[in-house]
């Protein structure tokens, strides 16, 4: 495929400017692909073909596996890019592939946020859980979420382009901005929508959940709590470095031209972008590994259906905890009624 682009606007430092960094990145992505692609396919198969019931949690995990599996299917393109140190797929594929990567980031964190909100409602307001567990309601929520993901990922289509590498042969697929304002807009949007807002909701949800658990006598750490908390923490660990580099690049764009600070920040984000982007890919293969360790007690008894039984058990945990909270609330109401009745009898006497 022949590419004709102006080489005068290329960059000296890009994601493929260092042979050592690209070699390490290619090895990591190869491992991620070999582990994540079959892992997410197995999760999807377990839910669609082997799960006896489709709970809210199961449906959210299914969408998360679809998002991660789609990204894993794109990994060979990026491996070839790193190995060849040259983008040969054209400008359209450059935009589309990185658009899908950004969409995966948004979809993953939004789905994890929905899991946390669902846990919050099931624990803190168990009487209202039936309002949001209807199939139509869940499908509408997921539809709105995917529409927001599609719209929020549009900057990747706008700013991603193929350019010639300056002073080097070949091409790069990278984000190019005409002004510093575009840099600030793109990466601030990713930071706010892809981390600050959803993780703010997640943290608040867990604070309220822990407060509620401390107020009840049912303090046992059930399977669903451990699994979803592990998903939240794992996603955070792999994506925080990427968002830190985003903040560094925003600070670079806002720094005065020619200042030592701007030169230092530019060096950090240019050399750190490839590493942090590769680390972020790992999050898409981590969830099947978490499911495996969470459901290993089922393997001997259930065989290949162990993961389906795990998700069913997780759904039962949610239901059990909701019933416990409801029962505890009813017990408190009964106790209050007895106290009021006793007081009324005493005043009558």
From TrEMBL:
<feature type="domain" description="G-protein coupled receptors family 1 profile">
    <location>
        <begin position="39"/>
        <end position="291"/>
    </location>
</feature>
<keyword id="KW-1133">Transmembrane helix</keyword>
<feature type="transmembrane region" description="Helical">
    <location>
        <begin position="229"/>
        <end position="254"/>
    </location>
</feature>
<protein>
    <submittedName>
        <fullName>Leukotriene B4 receptor 2a</fullName>
    </submittedName>
</protein>
<keyword id="KW-0297">G-protein coupled receptor</keyword>
<dbReference type="GO" id="GO:0006954">
    <property type="term" value="P:inflammatory response"/>
</dbReference>
<feature type="transmembrane region" description="Helical">
    <location>
        <begin position="24"/>
        <end position="48"/>
    </location>
</feature>
<feature type="transmembrane region" description="Helical">
    <location>
        <begin position="60"/>
        <end position="84"/>
    </location>
</feature>
<dbReference type="GO" id="GO:1905523">
    <property type="term" value="P:positive regulation of macrophage migration"/>
</dbReference>
<keyword id="KW-0472">Membrane</keyword>
<keyword id="KW-0812">Transmembrane</keyword>
<dbReference type="GO" id="GO:0009986">
    <property type="term" value="C:cell surface"/>
</dbReference>
<keyword id="KW-0675">Receptor</keyword>
<feature type="transmembrane region" description="Helical">
    <location>
        <begin position="96"/>
        <end position="118"/>
    </location>
</feature>
<feature type="transmembrane region" description="Helical">
    <location>
        <begin position="191"/>
        <end position="209"/>
    </location>
</feature>
<dbReference type="InterPro" id="IPR000826">
    <property type="entry name" value="Formyl_rcpt-rel"/>
</dbReference>
<keyword id="KW-0597">Phosphoprotein</keyword>
<dbReference type="Pfam" id="PF00001">
    <property type="entry name" value="7tm_1"/>
</dbReference>
<dbReference type="GO" id="GO:0005886">
    <property type="term" value="C:plasma membrane"/>
</dbReference>
<feature type="region of interest" description="Disordered">
    <location>
        <begin position="322"/>
        <end position="349"/>
    </location>
</feature>
<keyword id="KW-0325">Glycoprotein</keyword>
<feature type="transmembrane region" description="Helical">
    <location>
        <begin position="274"/>
        <end position="294"/>
    </location>
</feature>
<dbReference type="GO" id="GO:0004875">
    <property type="term" value="F:complement receptor activity"/>
</dbReference>
<dbReference type="GO" id="GO:0004974">
    <property type="term" value="F:leukotriene receptor activity"/>
</dbReference>
<dbReference type="GO" id="GO:0007200">
    <property type="term" value="P:phospholipase C-activating G protein-coupled receptor signaling pathway"/>
</dbReference>
<feature type="transmembrane region" description="Helical">
    <location>
        <begin position="138"/>
        <end position="159"/>
    </location>
</feature>
<keyword id="KW-0807">Transducer</keyword>
<dbReference type="InterPro" id="IPR017452">
    <property type="entry name" value="GPCR_Rhodpsn_7TM"/>
</dbReference>
<feature type="compositionally biased region" description="Basic and acidic residues">
    <location>
        <begin position="329"/>
        <end position="349"/>
    </location>
</feature>
<dbReference type="GO" id="GO:0007204">
    <property type="term" value="P:positive regulation of cytosolic calcium ion concentration"/>
</dbReference>
<dbReference type="InterPro" id="IPR000276">
    <property type="entry name" value="GPCR_Rhodpsn"/>
</dbReference>
<comment type="similarity">
    <text>Belongs to the chemokine-like receptor (CMKLR) family.</text>
</comment>
<dbReference type="InterPro" id="IPR003981">
    <property type="entry name" value="Leukotriene_B4_rcpt"/>
</dbReference>
<keyword id="KW-1003">Cell membrane</keyword>
